[in-house]
Amino acid sequence: MTPIMKPSKKLALTGASLAALIGGMALAEPNRVTFPENIQDFEHYTTVTRGEVEQILAPREAIEAVQNGQPMPYGTHVVIRFLRDGEISRYFVMERGEGWGADYPDGRTEDWQFQWFNADRTVNLDENTARCQACHSGRADDQFLFTHDAMTAFE
Ligand code: HEC
In tens digits, what is the pLDDT along the chain, a chain of 155 residues? Predict the structure, then answer.
């Protein structure tokens, strides 16, 4: 029996912290991130093209918080909508929830969690979201955003 299977330890782990513990493995990882059903109300504040077109979206109040130097509110989603040949191919979503950082022992993206959704808005269970966090953790000074400047400049 491996140590991780001891009942006492197993009970103490949430799904997300278990996934973080074994984050080196390519493991499916559902977490707390939900698909933003009000995405049609979001602002499309910038576009990045790398083969696929990435339309980057956030709610107006989150953009205003960033412009005012405030933390984006709990419940905020920031989204990349990927287009391939004009069709939506997938979505990357980051969402901030109160206390969510506690799911990950290293807390490296504060209360933000990350998820990959398929075009039909279901979770891509082939993705290990520890990779998303590892890369975005380098942007801690900019609320974990790579497009912080574009969000700040958006009118
Ligand atoms: C190797 C680094 C890296 C990894 C891994 C990564 N990202 Fe990003 N992410 C970026 C960069 C760079 C951008 C800016 C857009 C661009 O250049 O494509 C970005 C932009 C974003 C944005 C738009 C907000 C922002 O930060 O500007 C979201 C949402 C996002 N990523 C989610 C994810 C999710 C979800 C995953 C994992 C499935 C992920 N990212 C994995 C580097 C990364």
Answer: 344 443 433 334 455 554 444 444 444 568 999 999 999 999 999 999 998 999 999 999 999 999 999 999 999 999 999 999 999 999 999 999 999 999 988 878 999 999 999 999 999 988 889 999 999 999 999 999 999 999 999 99
Binding-site residues, ligand 1, Cβ < 6 A: 48, 50, 54, 56, 78-80, 92-94, 114-116, 127, 129, 131-132, 135-136, 145-147
Task: Quote the tokens at residue 36.
Answer: 């933003």
- Residue 4: exposure state from Cβ atoms within 10 A (0-12, 13-18, ≥19): exposed
User: If you measure from the C-alpha of residue 79 to the centroid of ligand 1, how many angstroms do you get, rounded to a whole number?
Assistant: 9
Spatial separation of the C-alpha atoms in residues 31 and 110, rounded to whole Å: 15
Choose one of 63, 79, 136, 151 to mutate for the ligand 1 pocket test, by most ligand atoms within 8 angstroms of C-beta. Answer: 136
Read off the tokens for 17: 């912290």
> In angstroms, how far is the first alpha carbon of the chain from the final one?
58
